[in-house]
Amino acid sequence: MRIGDKEVLKGVNMSVGDGETHALFGPNGCGKTTLLSTIAGIPRYVVERGTIRFKGVDITRMPMYERARLGIGIAFQHPPTIRGLKVSDMIKLCNPQANAEKILKDLDFVDFADREVNKGFSGGEVKRSEMVQLLAQEPDFVMLDEPDSGVDLENIKVIGRAINVLTQKDLKPRARKKSGVIITHFGHILDYMSADKAHVMIEGRIVCSGSPKEILEQIKVNGYEGCVGCLCPV
Amino acid sequence: MSMSRLEEKAKKAKDKVAALGTDIDIESYEAESEEMGEIEALEMLPEDVQTAALSAGVSLTGESAGDYFQVDQSAVHRGSSVEGIEVMDIGTALREHSYLADYYWKLVSIDTDKYTADVGMHPPAGYFIRAKPGTVSTFPLKTCLFMGGKNKRQRVHNVVIAEEGSRLHIITGCTTPSHAGRGLHLGVSEVYVKKNAHVTFTMVHNWGEEVEVRPRGASRVEAGGSISENYITLTPVKSLQAFPTATLAGEGAVASFNTIMYARRGNIDIGNQTILEAPKTSAESIARVVSTGGEIINRGRMVGKVPDIRAHVECVGLILTEKGRIYSIPELDGWCGGLDMSHEAAVGKISQVELEYLMARGLSTDEATSVIVRGFLDVEIKGLPPALKEEIQKITKLEEIHGGS
Asked: Smallest CA–CA separation between B354 and chain A, in Å?
């Protein structure tokens, strides 16, 4: 995968099964956000080799909005402000049938319904706004780019709850169909939601995969350098 | 100045080319229009006229403080439903109110150019609206200038007087039926805002593609008063040139201009200027313009004559197609120390990041573009009554507003 002349992802093999939620760790600039953006289909992210498959379909060259309609959703880390577009109207754009009232209430976002999307929102408000949109969109595969960065404890709880809804954590594991990938730096969000598997990405490659808890412990002790030498027992 | 002196002045200016805008051969448009009789109620207007009015923001139903409806050169209906507010046609008003001579052609010079001269040399048509001291209207006064005939020259002269402490909201829809051919609209508007009076003056231009438009407007605001002038043009015209002036003459007076423009084709030269000549006055001029092929010159001018004034100009434009032109001209003219004037101007394209954000939610490129363009044009106009705000939002949500094609 390259952006302009720069090769960013250098051979990523990763598979997320139905009903699974995976965590993605890695140092700044290793390509985590790029990977999610590539899967979402941002046009300037060009795949040179390899394929992206979703629901059995090769979506490598599929336009971004078609991927969204097929069931891919993404919460951006730094979404832009959309001038003149109210949060309540954005919900309708994501899904005209969505129960806006309930979603806004669940995310404690009722007071923001008439505000312009992301305009003057604090860190926590931006993240909740992203979750509101995803809950409306109801994607089958959701990608969350640092939903816990810059968010206080109260908000992390609310966001964790929303992620559990998006990934059907209320159902028995075998009954779950929806899956997700979450990027997190410190793993705080993992106290409020569960991930089935974790991956460590360094310099555009997945170097390690395993139990989220054990990997996170190792990163805390040995840092990402440890991952390069692979000190992980898993 | 007596009427005959005015006429003499007008005659001398009858060939005077305007300072701005493409030059129009006035004589290629018919001067005379068929007289139309008065109607008892606006609901009696033909359906195509009602539709045209609606698309210019003037709904004939719902609450209003009064109305004035002109078809070509005939005032077919006018009236006020609020005590203390007078609505008349300007011809009758000139005959009945001798004091009007002190207001008529006092803010706009009759010899400004050949267009004002042409208005001045013909029998007057247009509205006279006056709010007596302290009269407050919460509902808008709805006025409509409708040009029905083909190849016509419509001449309008409006005078608005908001006496001390009064409050007026006026919406003027300038419109033609959907099948209209070529036409020329010349409109003079003089708006007087007395001490502590507040006026919102909203003009929606909804002309046909073969119509040329030359409004000539000016307003004067006394101490503690305010004016909010809003100009909205979203449908194609052949050419439009307007550069209204607001003069802030008394301490603490406030002016705010909002211009919303969407041009698929045609030649548009629009803008406004505010002259701040009293201390503690402030002015703001915000323009949001979109070209999908049309040529737009977008002017915002502030003239600061005394210290302790504030003025801000914002000219922001989007060009959505390969062709199209937006020429933004913010001008700040400060005549002394101790004043504060600023501007922000930008001409560009839609942000790719914003497009991608909406596409990630399932919107196609065209749908995402429409959403962003509508949001861009959805300027928060302060001080409008809710009913009028709704009408304006309806206009900016018209299906015609879209992206590239």
From this structure: 6
Q: For residue B371, give the chain A residue with the closest CA.
A: A85
Tokens of B118: 């042409």
**Which chain B residues contact residue A69 at CB under 8 A?**
362
Question: What ipTM, to 2 d.p.?
Answer: 0.95
Which tokens sit at B378? 């959805």
Inter-chain residue contact B353 with A80, CB threshold 8 Å: yes
Contact B365 A68 (CB under 8 A): no
Calculate the CA B232 to chain-centre distance. 7
- Per-residue pLDDT of B126-172, as tens digits, reads 999 999 999 998 888 999 999 987 899 999 999 999 999 999 999 99
Which alpha helices (DSSP H) does B121-192 contain, by range?
none
**B62, β-bridge pairs:** none
Burial B188-226 (b: 16+ CB within 10 A, else e): bbbbbbbbbbbbbbbbbbbbbebbbbbbbbbbbbbbbbb
- Predicted confidence (pLDDT) per residue in B168-223, tens digit: 999 999 998 876 789 999 999 999 999 999 999 999 888 888 999 999 999 999 99
Distance CA B140, CA B381 (A): 15
Partners of B262 on chain A (C-beta within 8 Å) are none
Structural domains in chain A? 2-77+140-229 (3.40.50.300)
Q: Residue ranges of the domains in chain B?
A: 3-351, 352-405
Distance separating alpha carbons of residues B227 and B252, to the nearest angstrom: 12
Beta strands in B117-197 (DSSP E): 127-131, 141-146, 152-162, 167-175, 183-193
Q: What is the pLDDT of residue B396?
A: 67
How big is the A-B interface in CB pairs under 8 Å? 61
Q: What local confidence, expressed as pLDDT, does residue B405 receive? A: 43
- A153-209 pLDDT, tens digit each: 889 999 999 999 999 988 988 899 999 999 988 778 888 888 999 999 998 989 889
- A18 with A174: CB under 8 angstroms? no
Contact B374/A84, CB-based, under 8 Å? yes
- Which of A43, A63, A76 is closest, CB to CB, to B357? A76
Say whether B361 and A83 touch across the interface (CB within 8 A). Answer: no
Q: Residue B176 class from Cβ within 10 Å (0-12 exposed, 13-18 middle, 19+ buried)? A: buried
Residue B293 and residue B321 in contact, taking contact as beta carbons nearer than 8 Å: yes
Portion of chain A with pLDDT greater than 70, in percent: 97
Q: Is A93 within 8 Å of B358 when comparing Cβ atoms?
A: yes
CB contact under 8 A, A82 and B360: no
List the beta bridge partners of residue B69.
B77, B144
A74 in contact with chain B, both atoms CB, cutoff 8 A: yes
Q: Do B354 and A80 touch (CB under 8 A)?
A: yes
- Nearest residue of chain A to residue B365 (CA atoms): A65
Q: Amino acid letter at B19?
A: A
Q: Determine, for residues A68 and B351 on separate chains, whether the beta-carbon distance falls below 8 Å.
A: no
